[in-house]
């Protein structure tokens, strides 16, 4: 089978297409024939060496994918050959990710994909949608699971709603009944955030975002889903309602923040830090179930109509796919594997 591998960190040119033997699934594992792989910033960050030394001598990149189960290991009760599935965290603690034709994974990393959902959407879920789910389910007064109505009455502010995680946060929050406000840096991105389901968009380059958000939410917002805290925390603290949650999942735009202690504790708000790699199995399973329910409801999609333009690359152009994500492609970068 064909696989894309790297054996040293560096630019996307370290990726090479090779032939490898397919592995057999062991106890508690299935093998998935990958149709589509999703590319996320974490893939190029690990490959580049930004996240430290390589954990394995040879790595197939890719946390996310979608395809069909083609072999089932001993003791696996809930999957059968032919099942359509989506994957998450395929490569976190293992050398083999989704940029290959067949990947063996523990069943915990594999979730049934409803018949109505395409492989494109399946490959776009793992990292972005699970991160968004976590960010939306840790508030003091909010739900710990998402379902229609779970966020009814809540106002969610999504920073950078045209990003992959931002898009997923808008779609999931809208499905759960929240009013969604999204900040964006351009009119094009405003159109995408609105297509994802944001009722209100605020172009922070053209308007004073605090004033605009306060006008839309005079009592403040309940949850902020934050991608760029170094740039936005002051804004977040000025619009969060008492006991609200500011969920921070990235350090885009800077890694250091300075806070006024008094201004911060006066909000009675909480900061929820979010990292998929340490979030724990219970949160991952809850996210997988709720996201799949949103898919089955037809409430989660990809493509222009859902505010997430797709960019397809063939497997042999995985290096170009990584480069596209690294250069900030707007939308979702997918690899057509088989
Ligand atoms: N913690 C986790 O587990 C986790 C999970 C997934 C992703 N992440 C991280 O989250 C970040 C976003 O991932 P993604 O896949 O959503 O990326 P993406 O599709 O490239 O979106 C990033 C968005 O961030 C916004 N942004 C705001 N300030 C920015 C700045 N100073 N520089 C760059 N972008 C800025 C941009 O929107 P505007 O131009 O409208 O501001 C952009 O649309 C990445 O750093 C990724 O590594 C973390």
UniProtKB/TrEMBL annotation:
Q: Which InterPro entries match?
A: ADH-like_C, ADH-like_N, ER, GroES-like_sf, NAD(P)-bd_dom_sf, Zinc-ADH_QOR/CCCR
Q: Name one GO molecular function term.
A: NADPH binding
Residue ranges annotated for the Enoyl reductase (ER) domain, each copy included: 10-335
Q: Which Pfam families match?
A: ADH_N, ADH_zinc_N
Its protein name is NADPH:quinone reductase
Q: Identify one Gene Ontology CC term for this UniProt entry.
A: cytosol
Which UniProt keyword terms apply here?
A: NADP
Q: Which domain of life is it from?
A: Bacteria
Q: Does the UniProt entry include the keyword NADP?
A: yes
The record's annotation in Gene3D superfamilies points to: Medium-chain alcohol dehydrogenases, catalytic domain (3.90.180.10), NAD(P)-binding Rossmann-like Domain (3.40.50.720)
């Amino acid at each position: 089978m064909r696989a894309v591998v790297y054996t040293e960190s560096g630019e996307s040119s370290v990726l090479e297409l090779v032939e490898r033997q397919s592995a057999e699934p062991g106890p508690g594992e299935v093998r998935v024939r990958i149709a589509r792989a999703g590319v996320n910033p974490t893939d190029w960050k690990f490959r580049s060496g930004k996240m430290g030394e390589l954990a394995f001598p040879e790595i197939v990149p890719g946390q996310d994918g979608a395809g069909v189960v083609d072999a089932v290991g001993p003791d696996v009760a809930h999957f059968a050959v032919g099942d359509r599935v989506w994957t998450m965290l395929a490569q976190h603690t293992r050398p083999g990710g989704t940029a290959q034709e067949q990947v063996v994974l523990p069943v915990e990393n594999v979730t049934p994909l409803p018949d109505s959902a395409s492989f494109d959407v399946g490959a776009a879920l793992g990292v972005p949608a699970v991160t968004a789910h976590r960010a939306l389910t840790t508030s003091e007064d909010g739900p710990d699971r998402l379902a229609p109505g779970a966020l009814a009455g809540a106002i969610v502010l999504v920073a950078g709603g045209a990003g992959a995680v931002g898009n997923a946060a808008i779609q999931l929050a809208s499905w759960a009944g929240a009013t969604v406000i999204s900040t964006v840096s351009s009119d094009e991105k405003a159109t995408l955030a609105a297509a994802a389901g944001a009722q209100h968009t605020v172009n922070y380059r053209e308007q004073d975002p605090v004033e605009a958000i306060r006008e839309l939410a005079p009592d403040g917002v309940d949850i902020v889903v934050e991608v760029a805290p170094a740039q936005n925390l002051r804004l977040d603290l000025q619009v969060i309602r008492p006991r609200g949650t500011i969920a921070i999942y990235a350090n885009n735009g800077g890694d250091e923040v300075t806070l006024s202690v008094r201004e911060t504790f006066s909000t009675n708000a909480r900061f929820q830090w979010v990292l998929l790699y340490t979030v724990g199995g219970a949160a991952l399973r809850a996210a997988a179930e709720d996201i799949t329910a949103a898919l089955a409801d037809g409430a989660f999609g990809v493509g222009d109509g859902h505010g997430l333009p797709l960019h397809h690359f063939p497997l042999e152009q995985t290096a170009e796919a990584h480069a596209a994500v690294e250069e900030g492609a707007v939308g979702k970068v997918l690899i057509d594997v088989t």
